[in-house]
Structures are given as C-alpha cells and as structure tokens.
Amino acid sequence: MSAFDSARGNGMGAGPDIDEMLSQMFGMGGGMPPGFGGSGPRRTKKGDDEEHPYQVTLEDLYRGKTTKFASTKNVICSHCKGSGGKEKAKAKHCASCQGKGSKQGLRSIGPGLVTQETIICASCKGKGSVYAQKDKCKKCKGDRVTEARKVLEIYIPRGSKEGDKIVLEGEADQVPDQEPGDIIFGLVQTEHETFKRSGADLLAEIEITLAESLCGFSRVVVKHLDGRGLHIQHPQPNARVLQPGQAIKVVGEGMPHKKKELRGDLYLVIKVKFPDHEWLEDKQALAKLKELLPAPEPAIRADVVDDVSYDDNASLDEFGAGAEGDEGWVDDDEDGGEPQCAQQ
To answer: What segments bear the compositional bias annotation Acidic residues (predicted)?
Structure first.
C-alpha cells in the first residue's frame, strides 16, 4: 500500500511459496513428495500483513471512533489479469533465476556475520518467466499490478485500550498468486492532561479549598471524557473531612468494557489548596477560626527546652546534602610545616 511504504518492502511478498520450492525439488505439482503428506488442493499463500501505529486520544477510547481515510495500494492488473503480458503472448524462461522465481542471497545479521536466504527474483517478480518488451502488458508494463485508490474505514470500539489491534482483512497490497494480507493498526494512546487509566478504571486529581475540605461543597469537580460535568455534594451522610491525598471513588464512571454493559470506577484524589500567608494578617478572623477548630495536641514536655529559628521555605531536595562526620573540618596547619616537639 503506497500510503504505508515503510511496511510494504518491495510490494511483492516476503519470499517464495514453500510449496513452489518443494515442487521444484521433487518435480511435482502438489508441493509435497510421496509419503510426506496429503494430496489435497494446494493452499494459496497469504501475502504480507502491513502493521502501522495509530494514535488515539483517551476520549476516542472512551466513546469509540469511526474514521475514514484514502489508501493507495497495488491491485492485480485488470487488463492482463496479473500475467504481465499481452493476450496470447508467450513468456520466456527467466534467465536470471533459471525459472525458479527465486534466488539465493546474503543478508547481514551483524558485524562480520551474514546468512543465506531465499529472495524473490527481481527480474521476473517471482513468476519464473518474463515477457519480451514488446509483449508486456501496456497497462502494468509487465509488473502484473497497478495502483488503485480506495477509501478505508477504521472502527475503534468504545473501551478499547492501547495495544489493541484493528484489522482490515485483505486490504494490503495484492500480489499475483497470493491471497492479500491484512492492514493492522496498533492503537497508541496519547497522554491525557486530566485522567490516567488502569484497566477499566480512571484516576484524576481535584483541587478543593481548605474551607471546602472542612465545611463541604456542592459543585462540578471534573469534566468527563464525554463532556459531562460530574457534580459532587459533600459532605454526604456519615462522610468525613476531606484530607490531602485522600481518594474518593465514583462507582461506574470509569472506562466502558468493550463487550459488556459495564464500566470501571473513577478515583478522585483530593488536593487541598491552603490559603496564602497574607491570610494570616487578619488576626481577629484567625482567632475566631482557632476557637472553632479542634484544640491542639498536648505540649511535649522536656527537661531542657531551646528556642530555635526555622526556614519555612526549605526544600526536601536538599535533604541529605549536609556535611557528614569530619567532612566539614578544616586543618589549620595547611602550610606544610614540620610537626613540633612537645616542650619538656
């Protein structure tokens, strides 16, 4: 398929049919020598599949998606029916591959290492015979295939996940004497700014104020993947004060299952926004709040008490960076002088 050249290779398949090779080895038309297997009809080889990544959003996976795109691929020439020659023209034995349709070639598998493999003959495109220039099909120029444009449709079921495969059967490049391969799209989910997914569950962080944490709230806390706003009334009966890092679960608001009318759950992690330092300037309001809040824990008793100052803008990234042991000790005798004897 021309739209995906990186996966197509030479467009004529990966290699010769094993039945063809056995037929040449044993001089038989059925492929398997006597005593090696059944005598049923010869199975048509399937062409190479074409695999491509396909980026989707979490919204696409939640709601499902259908998209169409134009594809250009190789199809069997309709004029010569894939023979490559004019009507009644006779093909000649391919001198390049001696009529085998394949040749032995070397492929590098590492520094200084090569392996021998069977490759399709470039002269006859694996057919074993070629037409003279004057006898070649005018439409395909002897290539046996032509390019055609087709509109393809991808359907992504709701509830799909990253790594799932969307298969378009038989839509890969057509090759003479082969069944067309498939086009396979592997889903790759882009990162979402709000939600994280694990299985059928979703996780998001919501920010509330200290007042909402203590006194409650009634508002939309998050916009879901289908555009709905999720409203929460807090506190509910028997509910507790919401604390930083606490998680609440909204049952049935996770990802849908592909094959069931079920959904996962939505986990909301609480982030409490505390007031800034300017809020402390209102001493009267602060005193009233102190009267309303629970009393502090009993003071710690100690025989010796030191008043210490502190830095309220410290960073835990500096934790452990202080000097240890004698690393902070400086030798006063750095002039290189000789040690002195003690006085008697």
So the answer is: 324-337
Is 54 inside any structural domain? yes
Tell me, yes or no, whether 17 and 161 share the same domain. yes
Q: Are residues 183 and 200 in the same domain?
A: no
Each residue of 4-27: pLDDT tens digit? 433 343 344 444 455 555 444 444
Task: Count CB-CB contacts under 10 A for residue 174.
Answer: 23
Structural domain containing residue 215: 196-273
Report the C-alpha gap between 5 and 2 in whole angstroms: 5
83, part of any domain: no
- Give the helix, strand, coil percentages of the chain, each rounded to 5: 15, 30, 55
pTM over 0.90: no
Give the separation between CA 74 and CA 82, rounded to whole angstroms: 11
Contact 174, 47 (CB under 8 A): yes
**What pLDDT digit, counting tens, does each position of 174-227 carry?**
988 889 999 999 999 999 999 999 999 999 999 999 989 988 999 999 999 999
